[in-house]
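Notes from hallway chat w/ T.B., transcribed later so I don't forget. T.B. wanted the structure written out for a chain they're using in a teaching module, and asked if we could keep both sequence and structure tokens in one place. Agreed to drop them here.
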Amino acid sequence: MRRLPIRWGLSLPNRGPLFGLTTIDEILSAAVLAEESGVFESVWFGESLIHKPRLEALVMLGAVAARTRRVRLGTACMASFPVRHPALLGIQWATLDQLSKGRTVLCVCIGGGDQRELAAFGAKREERVPRLVEGIKLLRQMWSDREIDFKGRFYDLERYAILPKPVQKPCPIWIAVTPKKGVERAMRRVVTYGDGYMVASSGCEPEVFKEYWGLIENFAREVGKDLGNFETALHGMVNINEDKRAAHDESRFYFDHYYSPGWPAESTLQSWLAHGPPAECARLIQTWIDMGITTPVLRFTSHNQVGQVRRFIDEVLPLVRL
């Protein structure tokens, strides 16, 4: 049975500097504040390449690693994983784990399937799941103490010894997915290949998460996997403002630019965007915790990243039951 503490994560908008939402300096200042606060236990960056351009996540995590000593460093989530060659990524990620002295969490997903981005890297939409599975398997071998002997559908590395290795043994790999179809297959992949689970994309209702977690528990029992330290994360949006309409409008500006105009639907925001006065924000965040999220990863949909972090610590957190 899981008895994990709540571990707060801060997700920083590395697309924001491209459309005036924030600046690189403010992002890095918010990361330092997260560590100094003693409240946030991890810092995360969203990730994609061509389809949703942004400041590259591994480079940003390296900058945060150099400015911090305690917080974990993660991707929420690595949407480009199916098109990144695992050998190159494995070397880069092991270097980041070395640089940070063992503080990384590689959270991967199959991405949104943008055809132009996939084509740029020689991949196809229908290959995303098998590329994800094969990539995780290859990373596990690369980071082990044995020589690589891997021959797969997409990657072939036989009799290779690749350095560096991560500090962490094993170096954690989480899987992010919120499936609408193929739910059982998706949750079985989470159990088979993941060290943790993140609700991907735009959150989910408590009853949906209950279904996901029930499947994870059932599959874990089948294979004898211990879930005692298995974290469940949700990438949730927050905008703290006494004027709830203003909080909504600023968030909508953020979503229209960060994702795409009109996305997500207003109905989705009911379970994904905690906005308005502190008590209103605390109410939805409490729902996430009560449904079984151990690692709420908060993204502030505001121009004032540092100010929102401070308001969460001072005004919202005291209202949340842990």
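Follow-up for T.B.: The chain is about 40% helix and 20% strand. Might be a good example for the class.
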